[in-house]
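Input/output pair, single chain:
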Amino acid sequence: MGEQCSKAPPRPEYPRPQFMRQEWVSLNGAWAFEFDDAVVGEDEQWYLENKAGSFTKEIQVPFTFQSELSGIGDPAFHDVVWYRRGFDVPADWRGRRIMLHFGAVDYAAKVWVNGHLVAVHEGGHTPFQADITPALADHGNILVVKAEDFSRDVTLPRGKQYWQEQSASIFYTRTTGIWQSVWLEPLAPAHLDKIKLTPDIDRNEIRLSTFVQGWKPSGDLKLQVTITFQGEAVAEDQYFVKHAEETRSIGLNDFMDHGQGRLWSPEKPNLYDVRLRLMQGEEVLDDVTSYFGMRKVSIQDGILCLNNRPYFQRLVLDQGYFPDGILTAPSDEALRRDVELAKLMGFNGARKHQKTEDPRFLYWCDKLGLLLWSEAANAYDYSAAYVRRFTREWQEIMDRDYNHPCIVVWVPLNESWGIPNVLVDRRQQQHGLAMYHLTKSLDDTRPVIYNDGWEHMTTDLVTIHDYESRREVLEERYASAAAAVEAMPARRRIFVGGASYQGQPILVSEFGGIAYKKSDWDGWGYSGAENEEDFLQRLRAVVAPMFSSPVIQGYCYTQLTDVEQEINGLLTYDRRPKAPLEEIRRIMEGNADL
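Output:
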């Protein structure tokens, strides 16, 4: 088995569209691979250069071994796995710092280069990087990754990944190991580590925060910022970098008319491009491109608004699973197609459920115009270890995705996952409050949901999960705010811990779940349709009350696609519509004869 990957790598597009550099090398593709069920790899030093014989399999990164696209397709428990591949650094990169990036490794990772430990990371949905320059040889470098999962641990932030070998009910096949892209970049000793872009449409300004790695007090660094819209220069700025972290507000001197001008929305996904060049004298040390959307999410007198105007959110629940790649989309086009299909069916947003999605999906939401509720992959039970793990990973999620205009709501917790005894357990109640306030401390520009679905305390939105299928029951239940917050559709209270309704916007953030498959195969869902006509009639019955209610300000229909044994999607698992898209669209937009 060769150490180098010569074929074009799968998923070849740049993995981080919100923070792009031109020079980079993908490390996706064929890697040597091995299961370590006896957990002997570290003791036997599989990370050393002369241990190639310990690896007997081949895997296609970034697909996990459970998936068909990995070339292995083994759903059994293998909680410790190892990867190995060779690589060379391009000759014209020498003299610069070489950064190794991982989009996501589920769940814990150790990384060696030429036998030297260069990175340790915990958290299955968040990126990490390492400066591997000191470990590099002139050529023939060996990269080794150990990934460890904890398949049976229900206190692990795992989302929908099942803790048993065979998926069942609402739980799906696990993923273990590398499931997002791996790549290399060359950097100067002083370079941009990250940026934060905060739009202010009321002042027509963008607040730019920059974080410079390798900054020194004696340096003469300056930053050049150029902002364009559709190729037209809008603003330019240049300033000296006096601190490792700098914040600057830049006015956008372009016309904003009463028709919302260049603001971002699902109907008009206007994006500004920004280029940042870190300079030392006349030398360009770093050159990064990004983008932002001028948009505002707010709650005004109990009304949920987008860009200062009431906005009814029509969301679809999106699990983000794929038949051949599980958590990893087979291609960038597949991610784009999911966004396009959601819009074709009349949705203006999605709730990405129990998964922090690949940044390329967020890019297409930004580019094509789809609101997104960003939700963490939760644990199922509570423990001190869970609190430590989840709190850190949630902060990494927010840090990664802060700049995306599509994200309009943060959802740290869902349906009391991780806090199953929140009704009476003060520790779990306080954990939910801690996550709410931690989220607000990191981002005061977006609403935060305490616990999506039920059992809320302090929350910006009151969200209710309700799989009732009878139209008359839904109409009665959502005839008033008082009726809505007193209802217990899942035999769960809407508020706990002494909290009560304070006039927040009310949204039904899970409903529907109509099971329907055009074959004799049985599957799982909340209510069943016999044929296409029955399916559409049932769809009308649950959607109509969302529009007739005087208090509901948005909904999230379950769900975009079938997933494994679940057959309650509007699309099949391979993305075929179960009914004409235009008919689904009319229903979801409230334009059908409901």
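The chain is about 15% helix and 30% strand. The chain has a mean pLDDT of 94.
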